[in-house]
Every structure is written in structure tokens, then in C-alpha cells.
Design goal:
The protein is α+β, with helices and mostly antiparallel strands. The protein has 14 helices and 42 strands. It has a domain of 225 residues: Rossmann fold (3-Layer(aba) Sandwich).
Amino acid sequence: MKPVNLLCMSALILATASCGGGKATTEATPVKDSLLIGRSDIKTEGKRLTPEALWAMGRIGGVTVSPDAARVAYTVSYYSVQQNKSNTEIFVMNADGSGNTQLTQDAWQENQPAWIKEGKKLAYLSNESGTGQVWEMDPDGTDRRQLTDYEGGIEGFAFSPDGKKLLFISQVKTVKTTAEKYPDLPKASGIIVDDLMYKHWDEWTTSAPHPFVADFDGKAISNVKDLLEGEPYESPMKPFGGIEQLAWSPDSKKIAYTCRKKTGLAYAVSTDSDIYLYDLEKDTTVNLCKDYPMMYVPGKLRPSLSGASEKDILAPSKEENRGYDTNPQFSPDGRYIAWQSMARDGYESDRNRLMVFDLSEDDPNHIYKYDVSLCFDTNVDSYIWASDSAFYLTATWHGTTQIYRLGLNDWKKKKAPVKLTEGLHDYGSIALCGNNLIATRHSMSQADEIYVVAPGTAAKNQSAHSRQLTHENQHIYDQVEMGRVEERWIKTTDNKDMLVWVIYPPQFDPEKKYPTLLYCEGGPQSPLSQFWSYRWNFQIMAANDYIIVAPCRRGMPGFGTEWNEAISGDYGGQCMKDLLTAIDEVSKEPFVDRDHLGCVGASFGGFSVYWMAGHHDGRFKAFIAHDGIFNMEMQYLETEEKWFANWDMGGAYWDKDNETAQRTFANSPHRFVDKWDTPILCIHGERDYRILANQAMAAFDAAKLRGIPAELLIFPDENHWVLQPQNGVLWQRTFFAWLDRWLKPAKEGE
């Protein structure tokens, strides 16, 4: 594949000075083209998507609507393969998509725009001063001023509705360094560990994010208070939690925050986080999940009211909020607070419910909280309050993520949410914009763009009207041809209906035969919906003349609770049969080259590849496993989130009386290396603490010792994902070089 020069064309930088006696600048200062990363003018060849084109795409981020619903601010991140880094800028447009303007154009990172001061200013995070701090600017990008200078930096923020206080996130050290313990050994690199969760995702755990609240006079903050002062806990929760896990009440008197008040071993084996409510006037905190009863259906973990009496529905319980409770939001009138909730401790893929707490009562006998999504047999992926105290939410069902509307009391009427949108695409974030919604949307053929959705236009058997507002990457789409995405339903070995996505090469010719890839999704309980990836991208696989078969096997959400939960404790069972059934069924097509099938996947998909290597019965001619589990006994001890291993594996391998656990470990891929007979590429990041890199190294060594052709691609500075541009391009080139070597036989004469 021919590399493409990705020099960006932007040539200006806005030079701004920190406030604190400094000045705010509005003049543009020229800089060298090579220093500024902006929108690329890349040119492609042959109408085919390339790795370079993928990395040239702008990536739309956070979206925020002005208080008067007239304007929308958002971010776009641009990447430079040459510089091996990214840059994020802020844009603003009118709510109808007109007047789109880039507000920032400089070498700093500008993130998380938020409208403040009644929409007269835009606040944002910038690292211009050396650390992340809160800045403000006029909505035209002028009069940029630094508002905070907090030592250690700020990672997320939210101004109170009255504008008088600032809630922000900053790291607090929780573990002494070796130098602090032994001052005479300042250059010692050793880390002393005496409890679990000493590592998480891609970092050694030495600090925790804490929520802070401060007074704000319009120019600077003062009287900073740590809401978790002296506590070693984290809020928001690592590794991916942000400001969405904290919320202001409409009257600016209360703060809700997400916290799992556990450390060490207790943290490592539990998902039990809670929603806490802090009262600024009283300086008190209550646990909304544990201190109050909720309505529930006794003995029912699945969202069904069938057979339940009204008395049962209203039965009080304090035992229902033992899993993840996250992302609180107050209703517009302040009477209610909602959050996403899982019932069971240790099960990170439990059904994500929408919990509501009634703040209007002060009666110990009152039933305060209830599951408003009780009649919805899938996850609430995200949600917002509507102006009339109903909800708009996103949820995945049958392979797409759509927008739904749910009334506050619909569950009492046994009503499920109303689906507002349709189509082969996924909606991501949603925000109110007057009577409309502003949403991000993507598909297997298009990266995120911003849309306006008119929910009031939805009618029976008709979806809500939507219109695209941004066209960030249209100049790239105009140069490439995307392959057709097909939705198929097939019968599994146990006679269930399974959705399978089939993606065809551009300019597909049914008279030809194409090498075909079985794609194994990760998770294991993540949806295989209409996602867009900058690495595991189906369209770039199709552009290299591969057919892709992507089954929604057992374990994926969006097909009911039973389907979702079937994978736990059964890694080598029905889910593997589902994968094999999918490739076998699609391979019956005359255009599939059954002599040149490949199998690829990451995370649990990588496990699937390693497992297939010992069980495929000659189907495949090449394997690629990225960040996969090879030895499950080692994985049980190596992974940092022990709750996941305990739930999905069924327990420890030394528990000989545990039938589920013993079945799990008996199906570990490393036990079937004697049956390996197919070339395999193993890929892993050494900063991956979810599944350690030694798993790939061991699999590679095993293949080599067996005399099987194998390659190992190790990234010393990547985690479970590949995030750096040059590593991303290297990943793609290695991926296709390996597949082409084994799945594309040389033509006669070559």
C-alpha cells in the first residue's frame, strides 16, 4: 500500500497569554505549516480507503448546545502521521448547520467546550499554560482568557447553573513514591506493592481523580474544596470516567457524583459503585443507592413485568444497587435524579438500567427510587432528560443503536420506550436543542458527524426526521468508494436467529471469488453494531478486496438478556459454534473463496482466534489475534479487574469443585496448541494491563516451537488499543501484509 504524505495545510496559530495579570489575545500569529496539525488535504488513489486516509480524517468529539438553542459548539481532533501526534480544535455553528466556524487554530489542545455566562462565553480546557486549565473565550474565538491556575491541572469541569461555582476533576496522589519512602534512593525505579489494583488499564495506580468544588467570581476560582478529602477513592472512576459522572442540581445547591468507595482487593473484585449526593449548604453526603429502598420485581433480574402483581412491583428493597451505578443527571425541575444502574455486583455487563430517585419526599417509608426501564430488555447506553421530565435515550437493538423516548411513568403502564429513529447507523451522544435533538451518528461506512433530529416527526412505522449538519470528512469520502454492508439472519446450531453483518469489497463482482475474513468481536459482551473504527475498520478490509463476515454471536447485547448472558462461563461453547456457523453459512456463496478464509479479532476476539486455531478443522488459512487471551489460568491472575475474571470465567482455576470454572479453564486455547496447523500473527501492546503482552508472546513461541509460520508485532508504548498514528499505520500494513501472504495466492506468472 502506497504511503501518502499527511502534511496539514493549516498555517496559523492563535497566540494567547495566561490571565493572572496577563493579556488575552485575538491576533493570529503565523507558524510553520509542519507545526500545526489541522484538516488534511490528502489525495487517495484508486477510490480505495487506505490507512493514511483513515488517519487523515477529523474526529468529531464533544458537542454542546447554547442555552438559547441557537448555536452548537464541538471539537474535532486531527492527527499527523508525520509528527505522530494529534491536535484538537473547537468549532461553532448555528443550530441549523450554517455558519460553521473554526474558533481555535493553534498547537494547544482545546477540549470540552461548555457555554457559560448565559451563552455569552465558551469555557474550555486548554493545556496552553503547561497543564490542563479552564479558559474562556467569546463565541467568535476572541478574548481568550485563563480562568484557573490549579496546581496539578484539571481534567474535566462543570460550572454551576447559577455560574457562581466550578466543579472540576483533578488527580490526588494516593501512593507514596519509592523516593518518598527512601529519600536516600532517589534514582531507585522499583515499585513496592502490598495490595491489588496496583495497575489499571495502562498505568501504575499511584493517584486517584477527585471532585473539587470552588467559588467562581467570573474571573478566577477560590475556596477550593475536595469532596473526597482524605479519602483514597476515585471519582470519577478509572479508566474512562469523566465529568459525565458528576452533576449539578438546577438550584446549584447539590452535587451528585459517582464513586466506588473501595480500594485494593475489595476494589479489584467488585463493580459496586454508588451515586452520592453532596449538599453544599449542609456539608453532608448521602448514598442514594444504599440508604434508600427501591421498587423492584422480587426474584426477577430480567426486565419483565409478566406475572407480577402491583404489590410486587412496589415491594421495597435495598439489595438492587450492587453493581455499577454511574452518570447521574438531575431533572430540569430538580425533583428527580436519574442514573445508569446495574443490579449485580461483579458483573460489568449486566443490563444497564435507568434508575430514578425522587428527591421530593422526606419520609423514611417512601419508596424513593425505581427502574424506569423495567420493560426494556436491553441496555440504556446513554440518556438525557427531556424538558417535560421524560427521557431521550440511546440503546442498541438488533445491531444498530437508535434514539428512544421514555416517559417517566411508562414502566407503571408496562410500556417499553418508543423507538424514534431507524437505519443502518448508530447514534452516539445526544443533546437537547429546543424541540430538537443534536446527535452524533456513525456507521460502518462513515465516521461521526453531527445531525439534528426532530423527535416530534416520529410516527407509527416512521422514524424521526434527521438531517446532517457537519461534513467533516466529505472531502475524503468523495475520493473513495465504500463497500456494501448487508444485514443477514441465519440459524444457529441450536435453532436461534443470529444477525450477521457481511461487508463486500467496493466494485464487488459476484462472478469472482474473494478471500473472506471471519471477524470475531471483543468484549466479550460489547455490541457489534454499526460502529466505525480507525483500526478494526471493515471498509478498509473491504478496500483490500476481502469479504468480511461479522456475526453477532452469543454474548452480545441488543438481542435480549438471555442472549447477552449466555457467554459467561461458556467461552469455548455456543459462542464459538455461532462464529463457525456464520462463516460456514456465508461460505456457501459462490463468490466466497473457501480455500482462502481468514479469522481475525481483538480482546475476546483475540481469544476466539487462539481458540479457533485449535478447533477450526482446516477452515482457515491465516489467523490474526490482537490482545487476546491465550492462557486463561495466567489471565485469571494477571488481569487487574478480578471481578471480570470471577464472573466470566466462573471462579478460580484452583477451585476444583467449581464446575463452571473447571469447564472454562479446560477450554483455554493454550491446551490445544497440539492441534495448531495454521499461520498466525500475534499482536499486543506492552502497556496493556487488562490482558498482558506475555499472552501474545507465549502464543507466538508456541507456534514457532510447533514449526508453524508466525509473526509477533509488539508495541512497547501502546495499551489495549493502538493510539499513536505511526503505530496505527504500522498495524494496518502488518495486518494486510500477513493476510495477503496467505490468502491471496500469486497469479500465474507473478
